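User: I'm putting together notes for a lab meeting next week and I want to include a structural view of one of the chains we've been expressing. I don't have a solved structure, so I'd like a prediction I can at least talk through. The sequence is below, exactly as it appears in our construct file.
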Amino acid sequence: MSPVVEVTDLTKEYGGRGGAPSVVALAGVTVAIEKGEIFALLGPNGAGKTTLIGCVAGLVRATRGRCRVLGHDVVKDYQITRRAVGLVPQEINFDPFFTVEETLRFQAGYFGVKVTPARMDEVLGALALEPKRHANTRTLSGGMKRRLLIAKALMHAPPVLFLDEPTAGVDIELRRDLWAYVRELRDRGTTIVLTTHYLEEAEVLADRVGLIDRGRLLSLSSKVELMRRFGERTLRISLAQPLDKLPDALTARGARLVDGSATIEVTHPLHEELGAVLGDAVAAGIHVRDVETRRTDLEDIYVKLLRGQP
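Assistant: Thanks for the context. Below is the predicted structure for the 310-residue chain, given as structure tokens.
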């Protein structure tokens, strides 16, 4: 089965005229996204995330390379590919003088779609916008405006949905409601590309994660593979009293004294057991006050990769 979204050697440069140096926003990015996948694209501000989305959605013309959606070239077959894509941008982009329902009907009309009452009810209900159906959009709260942006992108039932920082600036309750709806869309077969600064969001939702920085794709793998390669677990044993010296058995396991020699700490890959470390501590007659473990999360891995750490 062919990928739903396919980007090959995509390069985008700005400027470079009159002798001025060009700015490289994307530098040879290649990625393929499958049907029904939630793909998270992570990176700092200015990394190239929005430029990549713009190229695939037909809003930005690439300098070199190719983008395909459902097997169609986004430049040659733009009428097909633009209809296949729904885009939720970072910025609020609807007219403040219409109601919520009017805004959604106009959006569907851009794609030649006549909205049935059932479809309108479905989208409004899914995003909890029904109570605001006849409200003027300028009266909506920030969270409701975010919901409306997503509703707009869904009105023509696109098979591919781009979410560019969809939960920026919204409260945690709304964020989790949107997460649930994104999963529901994925279960229906929608392919979703998500950019976010919330690492928890990517960890909860994404099937695969791509890390981009300065226009280059640094890493591309599933969450499971990322955790297998970079995941660690740290055991911290708080002591009843500080130690002068760590027993040799614990030193051999890579343990170290921290917090003024009042804590034994050891870090191992996720697949390795840490119980033996605690057993050695007890066998050495060490009085343990407390024990805690900490598992690497996606944020730790993100920081490591950006810093170029192995």
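A couple of points you could mention at the meeting. The chain has a mean pLDDT of 88. Residues 108 and 156 are 6 Å apart (CA to CA).

User: Perfect, that's what I needed.
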